[in-house]
Amino acid sequence: MKAVAVFPKSREVRVLEDAPEPRLRSATEVRVRTLEVGVCGTDKEIADFRYGTPPEGEDFLIVGHEALGEVVEVGEHVQGLKPGDLVVPRVRRPCPHERCPACRHGYPDFCVTGDYTERGIQKRHGFCSEYFVEDMAYLHRVPATLRQVAVLTEPLTIAEKALREVEHLQERLPWDLKPGRAVVLGAGPVGLLGAMALLRAGYSTTVYSRTPKPNEKAEAAELLGAPYLSSQQVPVEELARRVGPVDLVYEAAGASKAAFELLRVLGPNGVFIFTGVPGRKQPLELEGAALLKQLVLKNQLVLGTVNAADMDFDAALEDLALFQARWPGRVERLVTARHPPEDFQKVVSGKLGGIKHVITFG
Ligand code: BGC
User: Fold this and answer.
1) pLDDT for position 275
2) Where are any strands of DSSP class E within 136-200?
3) Which residue ranges make up each domain of the chain?
4) CA geometry: angle 339, 340, 344, nearest 5 deg
5) Is any atom of ligand 1 closer than 6 Å to the C-beta of 217?
6) Which fold has domain 156-304?
7) In this structure, which residue's CA is closest to atom 12 in ligand 1?
8) Whose C-alpha lies nearest to ligand 1, atom 1?
9) Which atom of ligand 1 is nearest to the CA of 306?
10) Which of 70, 182, 224, 308 has the greatest number of beta carbons closer than 10 A?
11) Average pLDDT, the chain
């Protein structure tokens, strides 16, 4: 079958024409025909050989971790899924260690040993191939009405997990806390999906990103009801003056300098959520003492969050349906273009512009 793979040792990105077709190996597995695979910043890092690891003993990694597929075959003990159903798979699989409470309790997204694996990223082949096989435990059934947008489920789960964590963490404030003012840093798919989730949760949300208006990301944000400000035109102090005390920042740019600048204007009792996984950059100079003083005197939380749990996938699928009802046509428009697998390299080059690019099969 066809598959898109990276070969880190020889630094090659190739479309394989004859990758072995995966078969069911257990009674709870499901064979899936891949429909769409989203491409994200992590894939760019992988295609640049700065991130990602092939499975043990192999010299290549099939990429792709944001997938939508159609069930074609189910093992005899599979429940709740049948051929023809649409599914999205989760990404991370638990580490093998007894001592990891997170993995042993079904939360590999909080793995403490670092020996987790991730499909299409860490030591497990991904979904950017004509077929993949996955255990039913890692698949979520997708309603047919979400066919056009379900490829966005995985990037949305990042926001779902973050907002679920914030809800718990802010229970430290022993009064009825209303969703306040949020700033999303970055206007890529993770940022815009995060903005949708924040608006849905009731936050008045501003998107703050580099490129000056007009541009299609700014337009996408403003059509949702989130004002867009460019960091090239509006410094963080001015942003804070316009927005008011910032209760929550959702960092979705992986740009450390911009993030630490923005941290300076986080409001009292606020939460700053980091989701970006940047590659290696120049060292950064920070006003450490002022920052510590601010974090302490303003009771602020700084939260890093990665990956997502079972329930976050369910929440993301529910939210995609709500988003479609609230902003008809807008979620679909986050997908700028669909491409054949042969275009993977062009897509990861980052030169195409737009918001989300997707590889399609079949
Ligand atoms: C993926 C996550 C993954 C993370 C770290 C992100 O791009 O969406 O599922 O855990 O990269 O590898």
Assistant:
1) 97
2) 139-142, 181-185
3) 3-149+331-360, 156-304
4) 80
5) no
6) Rossmann fold (3.40.50)
7) 121
8) 307
9) 10
10) 182
11) 97
